[in-house]
Design goal:
A hairpin with a 2-residue loop joins strand 1 and strand 2. Helices cover 68% and strands 1% of the residues. The chain has a two-stranded antiparallel sheet with strand order 1-2. The protein is mostly helical. The chain has one domain. Helix 1 packs across helix 2.
């Protein structure tokens, strides 16, 4: 087994996690109104605080380990300063009663059960392709930052790699394998995303709409598609073209795993800008969240910026809303990220087309047998059986 090349002192940074959580609590209290501060927002704010400063400082220093240590130390000191300066607020966090918290956590836990075994037992989509998640995370473990485009190492990787950055950090903190870090993040982000979608549904559709929105986004069309398991062509198709698969399939394309929670945070932040006293801090936090979204899911970032921009232009032209100018200013700061996001989306095509050869397991997955509806596991178990049978046949032919 190859030893983890990351420094042995990285697990000491686990001591900074509680203070980073308190820093997220302080930012949550500053950019959301009192009635709009659900606990599910705190973990995703903590994710922004943990990943974005690390990315910036690691890019400056050229070392992921140094950038991680400096960034987490600074954020932890900020959280500790907030604890010292506002002890009453900290006590209120622990002793305040949160209605329906146990019920929501229980439902989120039940919603996570269906993905546990597929996540642990199987590799999905592009996890094991050349220049994809396993390779990029292993590349980041070596400490160099930002990552290189592995088809052409002289060029930087101009594609979203926020999930790979998070997984590389997890491997360094917990000293676990790359595949184990991917599984851990996948299982941790699912209930967080479920609760954020719940909150999003409540914000736009009322209290009764929250759970319905979460269930529909996470599971709609997923289960009926399993009825086609065993068919020659398990993909949904119309006029010879593949139909867009259900969302649960996209979740296992890991940029969506981390991108959707950040997207929910961005939408909730935009909705809270008119309600907070410090508009500058609210817009600055929105820009930082958009920056991490561009690093995590380029397509979702571009569409989010365009959608919010069009909505703000309409608000400014039709209703003369003053906060629309402030939000547009923040989006203007993110405009440079839009071009980067489009370039990231197109950048991998050249190397991918030039290197069509893939490992045997990924070839089988490209044949259609491992595509959706096999995301929930049954089809990919069949894929493993077929692969084993093909190996036996090939040995006999030799």
């Amino acid at each position: 087994m190859i030893k983890n090349p990351q420094p042995d002192w990285l697990p000491l940074l686990l001591l900074a996690l509680p203070c980073i959580a308190f820093a997220a609590c302080s930012l949550n209290a500053a950019i959301f109104p009192v009635r709009g501060q659900p606990l599910c927002i705190i973990p995703v704010i903590g994710m922004v605080l943990a990943l974005l400063p690390t990315h910036i400082l690691a890019s400056i220093t050229g070392s992921l380990s140094i950038g991680l240590a400096v960034a987490w130390t600074m954020i932890a000191l900020t959280g500790y300063a907030w604890i010292v300066s506002r002890p009453r607020t900290v006590r209120a966090l622990f002793f305040h009663e949160y209605p329906e918290l146990s019920r929501r956590l229980a439902i989120a836990g039940l919603a996570t059960i269906p993905i546990i075994l597929p996540t642990i037992l199987l590799n999905f989509h592009d996890e094991t392709y050349f220049n994809q998640h396993h390779a990029i995370i292993a590349h980041l473990q070596n400490g160099a930052y930002p990552p290189r485009y592995l088809y052409e190492p002289s060029s930087l990787l101009r594609y979203h790699y926020g999930f790979d950055l998070a997984a590389a950090i997890v491997t360094g903190l917990l000293r676990i394998r790359v595949d184990q870090a991917i599984d851990l993040l996948t299982l941790a982000l699912w209930p967080l995303m479920f609760l954020l979608l719940w909150r999003l549904g409540e914000h736009f559709g009322g209290v009764k709409a929250g759970l319905f929105v979460s269930l529909m986004v996470c599971f709609a069309e997923g289960w009926p598609a399993l009825a086609r398991f065993g068919s020659v062509c398990p993909r949904c198709a119309a006029n010879g073209l593949d139909v867009n698969p259900p969302f649960i399939s996209y979740y296992f394309q890991h940029p969506w795993s981390i991108g959707v929670p950040i997207f929910c945070l961005v939408v909730l932040q935009r909705a809270s800008v008119p309600l907070v006293r410090n508009k500058f801090l609210g817009v600055a936090a929105l820009v930082f969240s958009l920056a991490l979204l561009s690093l995590s899911q380029a397509v979702l970032f571009v569409m989010t910026v365009i959608a919010i921009g069009l909505a703000e232009v309409w608000n400014l032209a039709r209703y003369r809303h003053g906060q629309a100018v402030v939000v547009l200013l923040g989006l203007g700061i993110s405009d440079c990220q839009v071009a980067r996001g489009i370039l990231r989306f197109r950048a991998v095509s050249a190397g991918w087309r030039a290197t069509r050869r893939k490992p045997p397991s990924t070839k089988l997955c490209r044949s259609g047998r491992c595509s959706w509806p096999n995301t929930m596991g049954l089809g990919k178990l069949r894929c493993a059986v077929d692969f084993r049978q093909r190996r036996i046949v090939s040995r006999k032919m030799r």
